[in-house]
Design goal:
Number of domains: 3
Strand order of the largest sheet: 1-4-5-8
CATH architecture of the largest domain: Up-down Bundle
CATH topology of the largest domain: Butyryl-CoA Dehydrogenase, subunit A, domain 3
CATH class of the largest domain: Mainly Alpha
Order of helices and strands: HHHHHHEEEEEEEEHEEHHHH
Number of helices: 11
CATH superfamily of the largest domain: Butyryl-CoA Dehydrogenase, subunit A, domain 3
Strand content: 5-15%
Shape: globular
Largest sheet: 4 strands, mixed
Helix content: 40-55%
Number of strands: 10
Distance between the termini: 30 Å
Structural class: alpha+beta
Length: 382
């Protein structure tokens, strides 16, 4: 039965993540955002704490923890720096596909060092002309007997310049369309891999986002994840779970904006009283609180069902759609409550507003989430 209370282990994980976020991640977050500086040393420490391999079984050097625990960590990190949280979320996404579908050989060579935090992974699905409709992948993988030769390009790759391994989705049989897509693990240092310039983004500025070009990259056949032709299914399955991570990130951003608004509205005076005594501000705060409570339940439900091994396509889409929507609503209202101060870097809500926007775009836009939910709702209607 779904519980609304964390167990003892989950509470301990939350305390550890919250302390680390406040003491280690938060102090330099504003400067990293300003300078678009990757949090290299912080991510190393995150790995040492076991937070980069939480969803990997102990057999493969991971922590073997549940999805709820992972969501807690992502949320706590997002409260102080969404860039750090998305690095953890993407690692979770790559790990999940390898845990479920990769061979023992791949797990030994790639998953183990990722779980130990010694290597980052990048999820290479989107392309210059392929975003929401992953069925249109143009990156080609040609069978050459004992290996494949991969040519093509990928766009919007989080952690792309820092990753040691790429999870690449490529077309192996165009005649079969999406049923011809195959997943591969690729050593990021493979000959023929070119990493593009880091994107100059509105938000998540200390998380690197790059394009990748593959020019006759040789990938051994043993690097196929799952079976040839299963790639599209694996990609969608992975994203279903990954969206729970992005929903957790959005929830953390929303909570941070709310907490800052509560504090500021108690300190800022207008007409002789704190502004939280004005009904207009109280309505905003009440709406924020209500939306956060609802989003939290959706995220918790999706994570709980995923831990049970259920198909969470609809639930993860509902969680991501709602959490990302309210994160943007709350960030916008937080800036409004702060007035002119909300428009400057010093008061942090400005960064939260910029960071929140991407949660409505990546790992499936809000428009796509509506479609996923609607299709599931109507599929059994007679």
């Amino acid at each position: 039965m779904l519980s609304f209370e964390l167990n003892e282990l989950q509470e301990s994980i939350k305390d550890t993540a919250r302390s680390f976020a406040k003491e280690v991640i938060a102090p330099g977050a504003t400067d990293r955002d300003k300078n678009a500086e990757f949090p290299t040393e912080i991510i190393k420490q995150v790995g040492e704490l076991g937070f980069l391999g939480m969803n990997v079984p102990e057999q493969w050097d991971g922590s073997g923890l549940d999805n709820v625990s992972q969501c807690i960590v992502i949320e706590e990190f997002a409260k102080v720096d969404a860039s750090v949280s998305v690095i953890v979320s993407v690692q979770k996404l790559v790990n999940s596909v390898l845990v479920k579908s990769a061979s023992d050989s791949i797990k030994e060579r790639f998953l183990k060092p990722m779980a130990r935090g010694e290597m980052l992974g990048a999820y290479c699905l989107s392309e210059p002309e392929v975003g929401s409709d992953a069925r249109g992948i143009k990156t080609m993988a040609v069978d050459e007997g004992d290996h494949f030769i991969i040519n093509g390009s990928k766009n919007w790759i989080t952690t792309g310049s820092k990753a040691g391994v790429f999870l690449v989705f490529a077309q192996t049989n165009p005649d079969l369309k999406h049923k011809g897509i195959t997943a591969f693990v690729m050593d990021a240092k493979s000959e023929g891999v070119t990493i593009g310039l880091k994107e100059d983004k509105m938000g998540l500025r200390s998380s690197d986002t790059v394009s990748l070009a593959f020019n006759n990259v040789k990938v051994p056949k043993e690097n196929v994840v799952g079976k040839v032709g299963e790639g599209f299914y694996l990609a969608m399955q992975g994203l279903a779970g990954g969206r729970i991570g992005i929903a957790s990130q959005a929830l953390g951003l929303a909570k941070a904006a709310f907490d800052l608004s509560l504090k500021y509205s108690a300190e800022r005076h207008s007409m002789g009283v704190p502004i939280n005594q004005h009904q207009a501000i109280q309505i905003k705060l009440a709406q924020m609180s209500m939306k956060i409570s609802a989003a939290e339940l959706l995220v918790q439900k999706a994570a709980y069902l995923d831990d049970l091994g259920q198909d969470v396509g609809r639930e993860s889409s509902e969680a991501k759609l709602f959490a990302s929507t309210i994160a943007n609503d709350i960030a916008r209202e937080a800036v409004q409550i702060h007035g002119g101060y909300g428009y400057v870097r010093e008061y942090l809500v400005e960064r939260i507003m910029r960071d929140a926007k991407i949660t409505e775009i990546y790992e499936g836009t809000s428009e796509i989430q509506h479609i996923v939910i609607a299709r599931d709702v109507i599929k059994n209607v007679q």
